[in-house]
Design a protein that fits this description.
Largest sheet: 7 strands, antiparallel
Strand content: over 45%
Shape: elongated
Length: 198
């Protein structure tokens, strides 16, 4: 009755290397760029669009999105116990604008058996193409019961106790916005013996 198609074309390039020693640490970096094109199409049978099937209405929908990104990360190792990382990512969405998200992380390992980690950063998540550009569909749910209505009517053979059919709709929200976040993490890894860790 319907055919869904989701195509992703993605191209990326990443370069990394050492920056040398300064400020008491050994530094390395990575930088990258990427470009992606997302295409979503949902096509229904002409008979479904013309409502020839009982309980199902078909519709055609779809959308596209281009995403361009630039990202970098710097890592500094102070001796063999303390490491710091800073990352920055810039994304340009064709349908949701631009976003810049940093992340700062630390790792400390005073002894071999215990590692402490912490990080803070921001996040961005755009709605999926299905959420943003999906079709509006109408359908029916059959043989549903209403236990509360049946009980209020006294139960038994009352009409409120008979199964019913309810119409429903599935549609997207054109005003749906992106999700943004600020996140903080702290963790510890304890390895009391080799190959056993918590």
């Amino acid at each position: 009755v319907s055919r869904d198609r989701y195509i992703v074309n993605w191209l990326s390039a990443i370069s990394n290397g050492s920056l040398g020693n300064f400020a008491g640490a050994t530094w390395s970096t990575a930088i990258g760029i990427s470009a992606a094109n997302f295409e979503y199409r949902e096509n229904s049978d002409d008979r479904a669009v013309a409502t020839e099937f009982i309980g199902l209405v078909g519709a055609d929908a779809g959308g596209e999105r281009q995403l361009y990104s630039v990202f970098t990360e710097f890592s500094g190792m102070f001796g063999n116990k303390f490491e710091t990382k800073f990352a920055l990512r810039f994304d340009q969405y064709s349908d949701f604008g631009n976003t810049l998200n940093p992340k700062l992380a630390f790792r400390y390992q005073q002894v071999r058996s215990l590692t402490l980690r912490t990080s803070a950063g921001t996040g961005f998540n755009a709605p999926s193409l299905q959420q943003a550009y999906g079709p509006q569909l109408e359908f029916f749910l059959n043989n549903l019961n209403d236990p509360r209505g049946c009980a209020l009517a006294g139960g038994g053979n009352h009409p409120n106790c008979d199964p019913i059919a309810v119409s429903g709709q599935r549609q997207t929200n054109p005003d749906l916005q992106e999700e943004t976040s600020i996140n903080f993490n702290f963790g510890a890894v304890w390895e009391p013996v080799k190959r056993l860790n918590f």
